[in-house]
Amino acid sequence: MEKNINLKLKVWRQDGPKAKGRFETYEVKNISTDSSFLEMMDVLNEQLIQEGKEPVAFDHDCREGICGMCSMYINGHPHGPDEDITTCQLHMRKFKDGETVTIEPWRSAAFPVIKDLMVNRNAFDEIIAAGGYVSVSTGGVPDANSIPIPKEAADEAMDAASCIGCGACVAACKNGSAMLFVSAKVSQLALLPQGKVERARRAKAMVAKMDELGFGNCTNTGACEVECPKGVSITNIARLNREYLMAKFKD
Amino acid sequence: MTKIDSKIPEGPLAQKWTNYKNNQKLVNPANKRRLDVIVVGTGLAGASAGASLAEMGFKVKSFTIQDSPRRAHSIAAQGGINAAKNYPNDGDSVYRLFYDTIKGGDYRSREANVYRLAEVSNSIIDQCVAQGVPFAREYGGYLANRSFGGAQVSRTFYAKGQTGQQLLLGAYQALMRQVHEGNVELHTRTELVEIVIIDGKARGIITRNLITGELERHFGHAVVIASGGYGNTFFLSTNAMGSNGSAAWKAYQNGAFFANPAFVQIHPTCIPVHGEFQSKLTLMSESLRNDGRIWVPKKKEDAEAIRAGKLKPTEIAEEDRDYYLERRYPAFGNLVPRDVASRAAKERCDAGYGVGATGLAVYLDFKDAIERLGRDAIEARYGNLFQMYEKIVDENPYETPMMIYPAIHYTMGGLWVDYELQTNIPGLFAIGEANFSDHGANRLGASALMQGLADGYFVLPYTIQNYLADDIRTPRMSTDLPEFEEKEKKVKDRFKKLLSINGKYSVDHIHKELGHVMWDFVGMARNKEGLQKALDRILEIKKEFWTNVRIPGKLEGINLELEKAGRLADFIEIGELMARDALNREESCGGHFREEYQTKEGEALRRDDEFAYVSCWEYKGDDKEPVMHKETLKFEYVELKQRNYK
Fold first, then answer.
1. Which residue of A has its CA nearest to B282?
2. Per residue in A42-82, pLDDT tens?
3. CB–CB of B136 and A158 under 8 A?
C-alpha cells in the first residue's frame, strides 16, 4: 500500500567536466512510495528552485525504461537496487523511511561527466557508426518473406537487440569495458542472414573503435549482465569473441 | 486570402503516386553534393529521412535535443507497424489499409495522401528486414502478424513489445552509417530555437547548444521539421519528458499553417494517475486488447466497495461484470479504435462504475486468455509489458486484472503540408507526427510507425528533389547574412527576458496548471462553454508565466530549467490554438468530441456538410487572433459514412 517516506539524499554535484565534484546532502519529505525515483528527484529540484538554488542536472526522457537516457548510480548500483529496470522505473517502495540514498553519475573513463549526474555517452554512437549496421541503402531490397529465418534465431537476435544503450554495463564494470554493449549488436546482426555478409568486418571495426575510445578489457566478472536493465546475456560476449577471432583468423 | 494548394497529382487514386514520381524533377548526383538539407529531429521520420537523403548524396545536417539519435521518443512505441502485405491471407490489400485508415480517421484526411501511405507500407517492412530488424517470426521462419484496433485483418508486424525501439535502431544505424561516411553532420544536445527565412524560402535555423548554451547558425537549402507532436501541452501524457512542439511552433510563427490542432489522440490503455507528483503516464500497448477483456463492475455498490479497498476484482462473479465494449460494439469488441474505447471508459467512470482508489480506472483482464492459451503463451506475447506494469503498480497482472485509463498519446494535428510534405513556406518540409497529413481526426494503432517511416524512407526523398531541382544553382549562403543575425538577436532577447522574470513559480508548476486546464476543457469531451473558459484561463496562465516564472541559472552552460521554460512558453500558445480550433469545429469526429454533437447512443456525430475540411491556422502576430483557412476535403473514392463498429 501507498505511504509517505522521508529520505536523506547524498547527491554528486559537479559544475562541469573539469570542475572538482563533491557530495551535497539534501532532505526530501513526504515522498509517496508509489512515485518513481525520478519523480522524487523532481520534488528535490522543485525544492531547490524554491530555495533559489540550482537544480540537480540529470538525464532522463521517456520515463518508461526504453530510451536509455537515465543513468544514475544509486546506492552503489547502476539504475539502483531493483532488478531488470532502469532508474526511471525504480519506485520509492524499494526504499525505507529515513534511509540515506547515495546518488552518483556513471563513472568511467569513456563517459566523462558533463554536469552533476549527466555523462557523455557519445562513445557508444561512435562504436555503432564504425560498423553496427547492415550496409543497406533505402530501396532495392527483396520481399521481407523471401528469406525465412528460424524462429529461434530471430528470438535470440531480438534478445540481443533489446539493449537500450544506457551504459550501465560500462558503469558496473571495474574495467569500464563496453563488451556487453558491443557484443549485443554484433550478436544480433551475426544471427540474422542479412547481417552475416559483413560479420567479419563489423566485429573488427567495432572492437577497434571500442579500444580506441578508452573502454577497458573484459575480465569475465559478469557484473555487466547482473546490472543490465534489459537482461542482455554475457553469452553475447562469448559470441563476440568467437566472431572476432574468426575474423582475425581470416586476415 | 492565401490560396491553399494541396498539389494532389492527377489521375486515378491508385495511379497518383506513380504519376507523380514519373513526372517530378530529379537532382543529378553531382548536384546533390552541393545541396545541404537540415533535418530537425532523429526519430523514425527524421532518422529515416536523414539516412535516405544522405545515401542519395545530399549533405545532411541532423539535429537532436537528446545525447544520441537513438533516444527519440519513437523508441517507446510498443505494439507494431501496419503494412498491407496480406501474409496471413485474410483479405488485406493496399485498398483495405487505405480504407481502414480513412475510416479510422473519421474522414478528415486526404484520400491521396492516405492511399500513398498504404501503398508504400509494404516497402517499409522489406527495408526494415533488410536492415536486420528482428521482427517476430513463426516456426516456419516467416514473419508473424497480429491484429490491432480498427481493423478486421491481422496486418501488424511486431518485435516483441518493442517494435518502435527496433525500427528506430534500424533507422539510427542507417543514419550513423552515413555519419561515418561523412554525409551527415550530426548535432546532438542541440535545440532548434528559430527558423531563418530568406527571400520567402526556408534557408536555415538558429539552435542552442544545450551544453555550452551558445546560439549557433546553420544554413540549409531546405529545412525538414521532424520533431514529433505536441501532446505534452497537457503536461501529463505518454510522451517523453523532452517531447515538445517548439520546432513546429517556430515554423507556425514564421508563417507556416498549423492544421487541425484540436485533433489529439487519447489512448485508452494507460496506467492510471497515482498522485500530484506524477510526471508522466505510461502506455500499455494496444496489442493487449487482442487478448485482454475490458470491464467494470455491473453494480455500482461493487465499484464503490472496490474503490474503498473492501472488495477485490477477482471476487466479482462473471455475471456481475460489464464487458462494456463487447456489449456496445459486438463486431469489433475490445478492438474498437482508440477514440471509441477511450470515450467508453470515460462514460463508465463518469457514471460511477470506475475502479481503483480514484475511480478513474477500468479493468483489462487476461483471465480468459490465460485459461485458453496458458500463462506461457501470454508471457511470450506480452511478458515485458506485464513486467513493466508490475514494476509501476506493484500488482501481478497474471493474477489480478490490470487497471487502465485513457491518456493523451498522439497529436494528429500539426504543420500543414501539401502532397509533397512541404508547408506553405517554400523549402520548409514537415514529416512524421510533426505534420498533420495522414491520420485525420484519429490515428489507428500501429500507424504512427508506418507514417514516420513512409515519410522518411519513401516519400520525402522523392518530393524534396522536386523542390531542390530548382535550387542547384544556389550556392551555400553565409550565416553572417542579416536574416541570421536578426533571428539570433530575437532569440537572445527572448531568453534574456525569460531569465530576468525571476518570479515565484517553477516551470513545472505552471505547466501543471496548463495541463489541468487542457485536460478538463480540451480533453476527451469538449463543449462551447468549457472551451471559452479554457481560452480565458490559458491567457491568464500565459500572463502568469511571463511575469512570475522562476528560472535559475544563466543562458551560458547547461540550463535545464531554461530549456523547459522555452518549450512551455510555446505549449501555452499551442494550447490556446488547440482550444480555438476545438471551439471552431462544431461537430464530433475521431478524437475531437463535442458534447453538443452526439447521436442518441452517445456516439460521435460528424457534420460533413459543414466541416469536411482541414482547418489551417495562420499566425498574425503575438497579440492578434490567428486567421483560419479551409482546405476542403474531397472524397472521390470512399463514401462518407457514420463510423460503425457495432
1. A64
2. 999 999 999 999 999 999 999 999 999 999 999 999 999 99
3. yes
With b for 16 or more beta-carbon neighbours within 10 A and e for fewer, the B493-525 pattern comes to eebeebbebeeebbbbbbbbbbbebbbebbbbb
pLDDT tens digits for range B584-599: 999 999 999 999 999 9
Counts for chain B of helices (H) and strands (E), in that order: 19, 19
Domains of chain A: which residue ranges? 4-115, 122-250
Rounded (to 5) percent helix, strand, coil in chain A: 40, 15, 45
pTM for this structure?
A: 0.97
B456 torsion bin: left (phi>0), alpha (psi -120 to 50), beta (else) = alpha
Interface of A with B in 157-216 (CB under 8 A): 157-158, 161-162, 164-165, 188-189, 192, 194-195
**Candidate CATH numbers 3.30.460.80, 1.10.3720.10, 3.40.50.1240, 1.10.1060.10; the one for domain A122-250:** 1.10.1060.10
Is the CB of A36 less than 8 angstroms away from the CB of B169?
no
Could you report how far apart the first and last alpha carbons of chain A are, in Å?
62
CATH architecture of B270-407: Alpha-Beta Complex (3.90)
CATH 1.20.58.100 is held by the domain B482-632? yes
- Outline which parts of chain B fall under CATH 1.20.58.100: 482-632
Helix (H) or strand (E) run with residue B429 in it: strand B428-430
pLDDT tens, position by position, B396-439? 999 999 999 999 999 999 999 999 999 999 999 999 999 999 99
Strand order in the sheet with A4-13: A22-32, A4-13, A100-105, A72-74, A77-78
- pLDDT for the residue numbered A1: 63
* CATH of region A4-115: 3.10.20.30
CATH 3.90.700.10 in chain B, residue ranges: 270-407
Centre a 10 Å sphere on the Cβ of residue B98 and count the other Cβ atoms it contains.
24
With a cut of 50, which residues of chain B have pLDDT below it?
1
